[in-house]
Write a structure and sequence with these properties.
By secondary structure, this protein is mostly helical. It has a domain of 73 residues. The chain has six helices and no strands. The longest helix is centred in the C-terminal third of the chain and has 13 residues. The radius of gyration is 19 Å and the shape is elongated.
């Protein structure tokens, strides 16, 4: 019987699973939240852009909204890189490097 043609999934052990759950505190590294908070503390202008009010909310409060040229997803990517490239759990380091966009989206969610 001839092998089937078409797209086949990789079956190596280095393949990234379709789903996985990031625990913000586990036995190998309980400092992920601390690294997130540290990044926000060290980057006050980025933090301000991430947590700035919606335009309509700012207007209603008599304030003005700061608008940046950088999309929030860029900041999410920076945070994900800071948190997960320094992880003590090699599983998360590997998964981050295999799919950094997925981790950036998770930070944004």
């Amino acid at each position: 019987m001839a092998p089937k043609k078409g797209k086949q999934k990789a079956t190596t052990s280095s393949a990234v699973p379709d789903t996985y759950k990031v625990l913000w505190s586990d036995s190998l590294d309980s400092n992920r939240t601390d690294r997130l908070i540290n990044w926000l503390d060290e980057h006050p202008s980025e933090r301000h852009m991430l947590f700035s009010d919606l335009t309509q909310d700012a207007r209603a409060e008599g304030c003005c909204k700061d608008v940046g040229k950088t999309p929030k997803k860029t900041y999410h990517a920076m945070i994900a890189q800071h948190v997960f490239t320094n992880d003590k759990n090699p599983k998360y380091v590997h998964l981050y490097h295999a799919d950094p966009d997925r981790f950036a989206k998770s930070v944004g969610d």
